[in-house]
Amino acid sequence: MSIGTTSGRRPVGVRIAGTGSALPKRCLTNADLEKMMETSDEWIVQRTGIRERRILNREEGESTSQLAADALKAALADAKLTAADLDLIIVATMTAEMSCPASASLVSNLIGAGDCGAFDLTAACSGFVYGLNIAHDLIKGGAHRTIGLIGADALSTLMQYNNHGRSTSIIFGDAAAACVIKATDDTSKGILAQSMHSDGRGWKEIYVPRCIQDLPPGVEFDENKLGHVQMNGASVFKFAVGTFPELIQQTLEEANVAAVDVDMYVCHQSNQRILHAARDRFGLPEDKLYVNIDRYGNTVAASVPLCLDELRKSGRVRDGHKVMFVAFGGGLTWSSSLWQL
Ligand code: COA
Question: Cβ(145) to ligand 1 under 6 A?
């Protein structure tokens, strides 16, 4: 099957040519958290499925953009390409070190990409899947041929590892993962169906207030809130349990693909219970919906590409497969991307 053409241009397919990831060295286990706040391994595992997560150390040179650059270098090596082959770098992140320049510019400098487009994309945990759709369509439209897309986040920088932050700091971890997306003459490769959604009315469900004016009306001021993720866990949970299956169903219908014909579901790793609910809803076998949240927690924009990299490296996702990517997150945002690899 040929996936679309661009009028006036030679039709191109789009492929994921390489993937890579980078993790901070420091590992924070549930046992470590037990020493920092009132919580327990049992509570965390039962509610989330998380056993440990990685936390970066800026004093040792680790940062969102350093991890992002390492992940992209690994993806380029996997694709047997160099930084000079890239014509655009997109970093999906909500934890750029600075508001200017973009993380993507820092990454471009770190990998020596020279003259290369670079911008950050902020859609919280949905950022990487938004990026897949955007990168695909930029190549499909003929404006670009080789794009480095990275999901990189360091939510540890927005956490309090004490009782004030115990409902969020147990969930999030730091990571970066990347893919190189490339034009190909094989027009059977690329996106079969995609979507990008947001409902700004839900912004108060997950937000990071910088100052008192950022707090929603009616929310009491507390200095501990500033600079730290505020999340209505129960409400986000309810939203996600409903949204994941709906998003998958709509995307399958648009592509006219049956749930069983998708080789792998790569879903944002937010909570093991949310993932299992989606798997049960479609009656999928355990090995078709990948879960690695036990080892990394919720790594925000890095979560989906980190799964993809592990799946490609283990051979469970390969050329010719159909792969469904779905994510949801702050905004509220949610997004899907069904690929013919
Ligand atoms: N350890 C022990 N107890 C904790 C705790 C912790 N780390 N964090 C919170 N608690 C307490 C709460 O204070 C509450 O106590 P109370 O009943 O005395 O008030 C109790 O545990 C239950 O809290 P609740 O929020 O109802 O738990 P939950 O079953 O909803 O689980 C989450 C909490 C956050 C794990 C769950 O809501 C969740 O995963 N939500 C989705 C979050 C998400 O996916 N976010 C990312 C979006 S991209």
Answer: no
